[in-house]
Each structure stands twice: as structure tokens, then as C-alpha cells.
Amino acid sequence: MAVDCLSDPSMVVEPDEVIVYVNEAFEKLTGYVGSEVEGRRLADFLEADGSNADPTSARCRTRNSFIAVRVAIRPMAGVVEPGLRLVRIEEAEEPRAFVQRLGAGLELEGEFLARISHELRTPLTAVQEGLDVVLDGLTGPLNEKQREFLHLARRNVQRLTKLVNDTLELGRLKRGERRVTFSPMDLCRLARSSAESYAGVAFECIVGRAIWVEADPARIRDVLDKLVQNALRHSPKAAVVVRVRTSALDAVVEVIDSGAGIPRDKLEEIFEEFGQLSVGPGRTVGGVGLGLTIAKLIVEQHGGRIWVESEPGRGSRFSFSLKLCKPPVESFV
Questions:
Q1: Which residue among 119, 131, 227, 252 is buried most deeply as judged by most CB within 10 Å?
Q2: Does the predicted TM-score (pTM) go above 0.85?
Q3: 176's torsion region: left (phi>0), alpha (psi -120 to 50) or beta?
Q4: 146 Cβ partners below 8 Å, 6+ apart?
Q5: From CA 201, how far away is CA 255, in angstroms rounded?
């Protein structure tokens, strides 16, 4: 059968989603042989993970657990029996594995990584622009199936672009190439701006007034955005709060989510490179585990610290601190 030629794990299903065939790659991925799968329903082996951000995300059953995957389903071309569909599966961890291979032995540093990342940027930009032109209808009308696959391609190009940018940023920070320009900054104002950029994110300033810190606004905004985006990925109902408070000497920003929480023994690991939170057997939340590492390096560059408090089933609270400073003196003419 033609599906045997595909390198991706694949299944053929009937209109009622009964599986009629699986290829060898599927057997290797799951540990099931074809006779154990054929005749059963698609839902017995694939289930959506409920991600609104990426409707292609799913869980695939293996003999021992579940693994995170992305799924593409399309009608089969050139078959005698109408209505058959091809289900192709891609392991969701592939981008992370790509970066790990790219950085192996280089510790994400050095001229080679910078060059290869810059080389990736140019074709990625070209692909992104080409997809935008087609999706905007400038090359002619599209049917729904074409539009679905093009949106899938664009999402994956965007993911890869973010991966490249985060890899470059991490390298610059570790090599001390990213300079910080300190100035007095109203932390409440900056945190409010970040929170208001995302749907479903609330803002609270405990003291009800400006809180001044000596910091680089662009770099701290980057930290805030990374923490909020991380919280939204883990919160099923986008219930996230950004809160600013003060202690004796510091200003503290808290980003609170309503997600599954983090086991106590994983609290430090998630700030490490490629650290990701598991949300079930064989499952991780999207990303490649660089955002929190970058946030940690930026906060430490400011002389602050970053930490997380969490309990499984009760959400998480990511916090970082910055030194308070006096408000700037206004000049009057």
C-alpha cells in the first residue's frame, strides 16, 4: 500500500473513523502491530489535547503510555474506495530534539551556532512571507482544505522562527553580548501594559501607586511576556493574573496561572535549558524550554532573582524581584 512509503507514522481510516491500515512507522512509534489496531476506532489511539492555540495537537496511545503528537488528516488521493482518509502523525518533540542536536557539543555557544541560526532566519522569513501572500488571497482563491494546510504550515514556520530567535538570544546572554541600559522605570505601568496585551490576563498593583525600579524596560518587558505566555500555555481557561507588590527592599512581580501545577522535585529544573513541564504520561506543553532560561538570565543580569511556587492541581506562581529605587526627580522650568 502507498502509505507504507511514508516515513511518518500513518493510518488509513474509513469515514466512520474505523482504522483499516497502519504503516510500519506507526508500529515502531506505538509498539502495536497492525492486527492490534486495524478494526478499532481512531479515538482509541488519538485524542485531542484541548489546545485552542494548536488544533493539530493530540495525544497518541503507545503500548506503555501516551506521547504528544501533531496530526494532519486529509482525504486519500487515487484510491478505489471513496471516503478513505490518511492520518499522518508527527512527534511534537521534534523541534526540541533539533535544537539539542544543533547545540550538542557546542553548549549553544560559538560562531557556528550564530552562523547557522542566522542562515535559518533568511529562508524562514521568505517562507513566512510566501505563506502570507497565498493566505491573503493574492495568488487566487483557496478552498477550505488548502487554507487549513497552509495555516498549519504557517504555525510551524512561526514556531521554528521563535526557536531560532530564542536560541540566538540565549547565546548572546550567555556570552555577555546583550547589554542592559538601566534607567528609573515604573514597574506597575510596564506590567499593566504586558498584561493588557493578552486576552484573559488580569492585572493587580497591590500598593495602588507607581513602583520605581532601576532596570532596562525592554528587557524586563521581555521577561514579563515570556512568563505570561508560559502561564497561558498552562492555563486551560486563560485565567492568569499579573500582580506587582513590594517587600522591604524589592519590587516583586508575580504571574499566577490556574494550570496543573508543578511537582516539587521539578521546580528548579524548569529554569534549565530545554526544561519542560510534563502534563501527563509522555506529554509536555509546547515550546522547547528556552523561554524560562532566558527570563532567568535577564533577571539575574539586573541583580534580581526568579523563582516559582506551585502545587500539583493548584496552579503556579512565577515571581521575580528587582531592587527598588527613588522616583526620578522632575525638573520644572
A1: 227
A2: no
A3: left
A4: none
A5: 10
